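QA checklist item 7 of 12: single-chain prediction sanity check.
[x] sequence parsed
[x] length recorded as 266
[x] structure emitted
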Amino acid sequence: MAPPLVDTHFHIFDRSTPLLSHRWNPNGEEARIEDILVCFATYGVTHGVISTASIYGFYNDGFRDALARFPNLRATANMPLDAPQRLFERMSSEGFVGIRLLWRPLDEVPDLHSEEWQRLLHRCADHGWHVHLTDRPERIGTTIQTLEEAGVRIVVDHMGMTDTAAGIDDEGFREILAAIDRGRTWVKLSGAFRYRSPGNAVAAARSLIDAAGWERLMWGSDWPFVGHMETMTYREALASLDWITDSQMRRRVAADTALDFYFRDS
């Protein structure tokens, strides 16, 4: 792929990053902003979006530093439910663009209809922030609909991760396709290496390319490939764009849609 390219999903952390003690940790590995920028320079990636993770808690200083140093970056954040409007205003000016709900690992999830969650979601909507969502197939349709009702845009992670026996025939995947049609949901062409069934990943990618490739699909690497650091490479992550055979559509997925979504004010 020739530039521009936008990586809409990568992580950064180093040994100084305070992590929640009861959550997963990167086992001493580091993923520094300087390291991902080497990948960017090597493969012609011009813009990037740092994805937060639950392990950071509400610590966003590492992201804040990266955003201040590199204007071609944006980031999502974890936000407390009582985050005031002035905090959203400040973080928006710094380059933060959304929150992440990493709910796939959770057996029980918070009630998005509660007063506290509704306040947070409406503040996201008021400031143009999106919700970056990872959830289980049996819940994702309901979660998306509740988020839509709050007025936020949604970006679904890793092609929906409907890695079930039914694959793209799973009700959860059909709900994602329906949400795309309703106009407030985008999906990331990312994370294929995380599927237990490679066939499910390929089928999901092809279905999403057909349904969303012209305006609702964006590419992300998921660097540094946590859990697959020894086997996955950035080149392999970029190869998922080869599933898109139309060159104009590939350009939209690789860059144009993401530039409009994350960098429209640049």
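[x] summary fact logged: The chain has one domain: 6-263.
[ ] second reviewer sign-off
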